[in-house]
Design a protein that fits this description.
The complex is a heterodimer. Helix content of chain A is 34%, strand content 20%. Chain A starts with a helix and ends with a strand. Among the domains of chain A are: 38 residues; 133 residues, Penicillin amidase (Acylase) alpha subunit, N-terminal domain, CATH 1.10.1400. Chain B has one domain. Chain B is elongated, with a radius of gyration of 15 Å. Chain B is built from five helices and no strands. Classes of the chains: A alpha+beta, B mainly alpha.
Chain lengths: 824, 116
């Protein structure tokens, strides 16, 4: 008689299991399977790491040649001591996976266009973008090259891969990283290709802006015409202080790039009429991806030994891009920041020297317009004949939906990014091929593996000579007293303006005419001024025989600030270098404020505007946490810019890129009647800087009064620096950090971008080094080590690195745990 | 007495099944079912045993892990879910979900015997 209740109850139970075991949709994102997620033996509770976790462990692995000892210090930094290099990389892979597995999986998914596979159709735009940009294609070129030609690098990456997989293999499903549980998927095995995909992502991050910028510049030139364009987007930078000091004499170039005969009519003064309004769809890498690095020689330091500083500026995320590590084997002992996803130390030092990198910012990405014979895209027109394409099939798996296939026509230029299948209503089916040095095969991180082992200047030169993309400024300081900096990468021998816009793809005269030989890349060693430095400014003055790319790609003012400080400093200590890395002085405002004040007609201002101007003029020119003056200055400057060239740019239906601040400032300082200052919409009146600055201040005041009402005039409250979790979930992020700095400031911390690793190395006999990154060694949001460096970083403080031999480190008071890796 | 034994046995078996990470998270539905078939009780008491067993187990484990963690993770999850960042609400939700399903499983078991 109880059959009915039995059935009812069974259905209810099964139904509830089913519901709690299904990913429900909340808003735009899928929620976890609630029952699984909440289960204390399976779900997120298992990731609530004990505050005083003991990380001691013994790991037995078949792949090891010998035993490896890892001592972990109180900041959770591992110090690896191995008898074989490959064993060290195996353990590095294992540790990266143990502490950062989800991030490694996620970042390489992004790079390979495989987000839809786990997150559904919402992520198709970004997946299609990266497939069509040829990200997997580029990674495959490097993988094939290393497998065929470079057994040492192959062994290195294979050992690293085996280490990651050894961790994945022993991982109990209940101990999966938190985000896998949240997003409801499982990690897959690591492969060497994933390491190369990760490196492709760095190439995209540091050179891929051109994918958007070239379209924007083309659109802007089309809208304004080349002559006006060349005024607003000029390549002349009056205040440039280049990496290689002005006046340096350059050797005769071995390649003299020849401008195509028809470049004036068919290139510069043409209009492509592309009107790509989907450029905003491209997730352009941050414009401020840059960095500072410098080295001072013993002549300028208190100890008589060089000091090197390096702080790469990148998007700030949790878990951090960086993972701190020491690797010690019989061949080398190296300490620094590594990339979870790649073997070796990327920025760091060993017992002989230290090195750091900043982005070169050179243009190594161009678009060529392709004319296909027909919609099959089997043939395209080139040098007066039809040439065959090959096809690359990219299959995008989509969660809960059918596969999406990208059939990409490959020409000799590279993958066809835009065509009739990947376009918008205004692109009218035009096709654009991509030519990009990131698609050239490389030797992966061989440069860094060699830098890890470098003993002297010659070793450094050899190591970096192998670097191709993304181009970097490699700074060096050695214990023997050498300092040097070299801009290195595969750089294109360009004629002026080549590749700033979309180029005709039917004609070989627009092709790259060569890669600049390594020994012609800008470099300097032991200069008389006693320091070398870079801050993403152009490497050279215009006497360098090759075109560096559009000036808008290079920030100017941080470099001026760094050089000014270093020139005047003497008896330098590592503490002085810390103060410089976190310096908030605004060298741009130091020039721009008096320039504006010269034109401002104070008597015409409202009382509120006068009060704001007063706030700005009383400002000490430091972008400090509580400063209101910087906020007022920034809003006023932006408003003046808008008043000056907003009218020229208004009215375009397609996105135009804003001219650079230096263009306006340079003109304010030399030409009070600059033609652009006139408002082209007032026919009966010719405005000048006086009118526009005064108008700009009055307009800015409205916005400033609103900010004042919201209590957001203080710089850190206005800027609201945040470190976002890779999923962008606020709960897993750190928001509203009390930190100063900003654009044009040595402390380049903006809203979500800034010094992603700060390092200072004093090359004394026993190396004295300091640093940190805004994150923590653990990628687990449930660990106290998830964001343990963030507050120290925001406060501008540093940790002293423990860089010691095995016996000394073992006995150090800061050493907490011991992981033993044993060969089976 | 029966109810006490039933609760303890259900909780123990559920915990044991949960140790194996490869088994599904809802394995306790099966173990509860088995216990309530093995120890027949009236429907209400059977439900109550399953409810209390899994509720206590999940509540206890969650509190234990959360205390050791200083609420670092629970406060983040309680913002995502969204429970206004309250770890207490998150523990309560965890307890309730486990308890409800545990109770239903045991209730189902109680009807198996009585149909014969």
């Amino acid at each position: 008689m109880r059959l009915l209740p039995l059935i009812a109850s069974a259905i209810l139970t099964t139904g509830l299991v089913f519901t709690l075991d299904t990913q429900l949709k909340i808003g735009n994102t899928k929620a976890p399977r609630l029952g699984y997620f909440l289960s204390p033996q399976h779900g997120f509770w298992k990731n609530a790491e004990k505050i005083n976790t003991n990380f001691d462990a013994t790991i037995i692995a078949n792949e090891l040649k010998g035993n490896v000892d890892v001592y972990v210090d109180d900041r959770l930094v591992p110090h690896i001591y191995a008898d074989h290099d490959d064993d060290a990389y195996f353990v590095q892979g294992y540790l990266h996976a143990k502490f950062r597995l989800w991030q490694m999986d996620f970042e390489t998914r992004v790079a390979s266009g495989r987000l839809s596979e786990i997150a559904g159709a919402d992520k198709l735009p970004i997946d299609r973008l990266f497939r069509r940009l040829g990200m997997p294609y580029g990674a495959e070129q490097t993988e094939a090259n290393i497998n065929a030609n470079n057994p040492t690098m192959k062994a290195t990456v294979d050992a690293y891969t085996a280490g990651v997989n050894a961790y994945i293999k022993q991982l109990d499903p209940a101990d999966l990283p938190f985000e896998f549980k949240l997003m409801n998927y499982a990690p897959e095995d690591w492969t060497p290709k994933k390491t190369y995909l990760f490196l492709m992502f760095m190439s995209y991050d540091l050179t891929g802006r051109s994918a958007s910028v070239d379209l924007q510049l083309t659109n802007t030139r089309d809208y304004l015409g080349y002559d006006l364009f060349d005024k607003l987007y000029t390549n002349k930078q009056d205040s440039l202080d280049p990496i290689i000091p002005k006046g340096t004499v350059y050797a005769k170039p071995s390649i003299i790039p020849i401008k195509p005969a028809n470049s004036d009519s068919a290139y510069l003064h043409t209009t492509n009429a592309l009107a790509f309004n989907n450029v905003e769809m491209l997730e352009a890498p941050d414009k401020n991806n840059g960095s500072n690095n410098w080295a001072v020689s013993g002549t300028k330091t208190k100890s008589g030994r060089p000091i090197l500083s390096s702080d790469p500026h990148l998007g700030l995320n949790l878990p951090s891009l960086w993972y701190e590590i020491q690797i010690t084997t019989p061949t080398h002992s190296t300490y620094g920041a590594s990339f979870p996803g790649s073997p070796a130390v990327i920025i760091g030092f060993n017992d002989s020297l230290a090195w750091g990198v900043t982005n070169a910012g050179r243009d190594v990405f161009d678009y060529y317009e392709i004319k296909f014979k027909d919609s099959t895209q089997n043939e395209y027109w080139y040098n007066g004949a039809w040439k065959s394409t090959t096809k690359r099939k990219e299959i995008i798996k989509v969660k809960d939906s059918a596969d999406v296939i990208e059939d990409i026509a490959m020409t000799h230029w590279g993958p066809t990014m835009f065509d009739t299948h990947y376009q918008n209503t205004q692109s009218k089916g035009r096709s654009l091929g991509v030519h990009w040095t990131a698609h050239y095969s490389s030797t992966g991180v061989e440069t860094f593996c060699l830098l890890n082992r470098a003993k002297n200047y010659e070793d450094y030169l050899h190591a970096i000579s192998l670097w191709t993309c993304p181009g970097q400024n490699f700074v060096l300081a050695t214990k023997t007293g050498d300092i040097a900096i070299k801009q290195q990468g595969s750089f294109v021998a360009r004629w002026e303006r080549q590749g700033d816009f979309i180029m005709p793809g039917e004609d070989s005269s627009y092709a790259w005419q060569g890669i600049i030989p390594n020994d012609e890349n800008p470099m300097i060693k032991n200069p008389a001024r006693g320091f070398v430095s870079s801050a993403n400014q152009p490497a050279t003055d215009p006497t360098y025989p090759y075109y560096l790319g559009a000036a808008s790609a290079f920030p100017l003012y941080r470099g001026i600030s760094v050089n000014k400080h270093l020139t005047s400093m003497n008896q330098i200590t590592p503490q002085d270098m810390q103060a410089l890395q976190t310096d908030n002085y605004n060298v741009f405002a130091a020039t721009a404020r008096p320039a504006m004040m010269r034109y401002l007609q104070l008597d015409q201002l409202s009382n509120d505007a006068k009060r704001m101007v007063n706030e700005m003029t009383n400002w000490d020119l430091n972008n400090s946490v509580h400063s209101k003056g910087i906020t007022v200055f920034k809003i006023i400057w932006d408003s003046v810019e808008q008043a000056v060239w907003g009218d020229e740019l208004a009215g375009s239906a397609i996105p135009l890129t804003k001219p650079e601040a230096f263009v306006l400032l340079d003109q304010m300082n030399k030409d009070s009647n600059w033609v652009i200052a006139d408002n082209i919409r007032t026919k009966d009146k010719v405005e000048n800087f006086k009118d526009q600055v005064t108008l700009g201040v009055e307009r800015a005041t409205k916005k400033l009064l609103e900010l004042e009402k919201e209590n957001k005039l203080e710089w850190s409250l206005f800027k609201a620096t945040r470190i976002l979790h890779l999923t962008k979930m606020p709960a897993l992020s750190r928001l509203n950090l009390p930190i100063g700095g900003g654009v044009n400031i040595i402390n380049a911390t903006t809203e979500n971008h800034g010094p992603s690793w700060r390092m200072i190395v004093h090359l004394t006999d026993e190396i004295e080094a300091y640093g940190l990154y805004p994150g923590g060694q653990s990628g687990n949001p449930g660990s106290p080590y998830y964001d343990s460096f963030v507050n120290t970083w925001a406060a501008g403080q540093y940790y002293r690195f423990l860089f010691l031999g095995k016996e000394k480190l073992k006995q150090n008071a800061r050493t907490k745990w011991h992981l033993q890796f044993k060969a089976a | 007495m029966k109810i006490l034994i039933s609760i303890i046995l259900s909780a123990l078996l559920a915990y044991a099944a949960g140790i194996y990470g490869n088994l599904p998270w809802w394995s306790f539905v099966i173990t509860n079912l088995v216990v309530s078939i093995a120890i027949p009780q009236k429907a209400f008491f059977s439900f109550l045993s399953g409810f209390i067993a899994i509720g206590l187990l999940w509540c206890g484990l969650a509190i234990l892990l959360d205390q050791g963690n200083d609420h670092i993770l629970s406060m983040k999850v309680a913002t995502i879910l969204p429970l206004k960042g309250s770890y207490i609400a998150l523990i309560a939700l965890t307890t309730f979900i486990g308890a409800l399903l545990g109770g239903l499983a045991s209730l189902t078991g109680s009807f198996v015997r009585s149909t014969k």
